Amino acid sequence: MAKAVETQNLERVKSVRRVPQEEYYVPGHRTCQGCGPALCYKLVSKATGPDSIFLGPTGCMYVANTSYLCSPFAYPWMHTQITNAGAVASGVEAAYQVLIRKGKYKGKLPNIVVMGGDGGSIDIGLQAMSGMMYRGHDALFIMYDNESYANTGIQTSPMSPYGANTTFTPPGKAIPEGKVLFPKDAPQMVIGGHPAVKYVATASLAYPVDLINKVRKGLNVVGPTFIHIHCPCPKGWLFDADKTIEVAKLAIETGMWVNYEWEEGEYTYQHTPKEYTPVKEYMKTQERFSHLTDEHIAKMQAFIDAKLKAPGKPVPLPVTSPRESV
Amino acid sequence: MAKEMFLAGCSAAAYGAALARVEVITSFPIRPYTGIMMELSKLVANGELDAEFVHGEGEHAQVAIAYGAAAAGARAYTGSSGVGVTYAMECYSPASGGRLPCQMAIADRALDPPGDFGSEHTDVMSCRDQGWIMGWAETPQEVLDNTIIYYRIGEDPRVLLPQFCCQDGYFVSHIPGKVVMPEQSQVDEFLPPYKHPHALDPTKPISHGPQIYPDQGPAINLQRAQAFLDTPAVIEEVIEDFNKIFGRDYKPFLDEYRTDDADFVFFIQGGHARTARFAVNHLREKGVKAGMVKLRFVRPFPTEAVAETLSKFKAVGCVENSTSYGGAMKGGNLIHEVRSALYDVDNPPAVTSFMSGLGGEVVSLEEFYSMAKVLAEAAKTGKVEQYVYWVGFDKGV
Question: Could you say which DSSP state residue B289 is in?
Answer without folding.
Answer: -
